[in-house]
Amino acid sequence: MKKLGLIGYPLGHSFSKKYYLQKFENEHIEDINYDLYAIEDIQNFQHLYRHDISFYGFNVTIPHKLTVMQFINELSAEAQEINAVNCIKIRREGDNIYLKGFNTDAFGFEESLKPLLKPIHQQALVLGNGGAAKAIIYTLKKLNIPYLIVSRTKENGDLTYEELKQIDLKDYQIIINCSPVGTFPHVQDAPDINYEQLSTDHLLYDLIYNPAETLFLQKGKERGAVIKNGHEMLILQAEKNWEIWNNEE
């Protein structure tokens, strides 16, 4: 029985476990399991794969996307630039164990964003500058879309939310929520922006997928903006992980 898993702490509801177990069932993939491994101290991660040769891959979530890199032998180009890992492939040759780290968040975001982009979408605002924003910023750079980072404090971004109030949002047609504001159960919360300035020229993307339509997205839809949540990004990212784990290279 081969093993895959998700490491992080704490681990509550997991999209990954549900998704992969359903995939295995639907596609009649046998002799493989995917489970959750709530690891508080990242030093305990190596005990998982060192003492169990069944493991050949992991997903990584908060708070270990950065700290896990101390165990990685090689980073993919995007993981190196983003400086965060959410997918690990394990290769074994005798007693030697080789870990390669990837960041498939960037792939999932890019592929879900590109079909929505129009010539009018010239500049972006990134709301929040935590770990989730890293892959988003990497992708905007790759797509040559200028951006500003909005954060609660000046030290963490280009603008604070207070300063954003002085800016006309018509100049920033893509607005991406990378913050946890609006996540269930706090569904009555939304990032503090001038929603009355939104129009049909805007594209609002929320990395949150629970609820499916956050207040941020609802307010954008009311103004005629195109809206998108993070669900497809997760699916694309999950499929990319699967491709990486099962690629013979």
Automatic annotation (TrEMBL):
Metabolic or biological pathway: Metabolic intermediate biosynthesis; chorismate biosynthesis; chorismate from D-erythrose 4-phosphate and phosphoenolpyruvate: step 4/7
UniProt keyword terms in alphabetical order: Amino-acid biosynthesis, Aromatic amino acid biosynthesis, Oxidoreductase
Domain of life of the source: Bacteria
InterPro entries cross-referenced by the UniProt entry: Aminoacid_DH-like_N_sf, NAD(P)-bd_dom_sf, Shikimate_DH-bd_N, Shikimate_DH_fam
Residue intervals of the Shikimate dehydrogenase substrate binding N-terminal domain: 6-88
UniProt GO cellular component terms: cytosol
Gene Ontology biological process terms from the UniProt entry: aromatic amino acid family biosynthetic process; chorismate biosynthetic process; shikimate metabolic process
Single GO MF annotation: NADP binding
Protein name: Shikimate dehydrogenase
Organism: Sphingobacterium olei
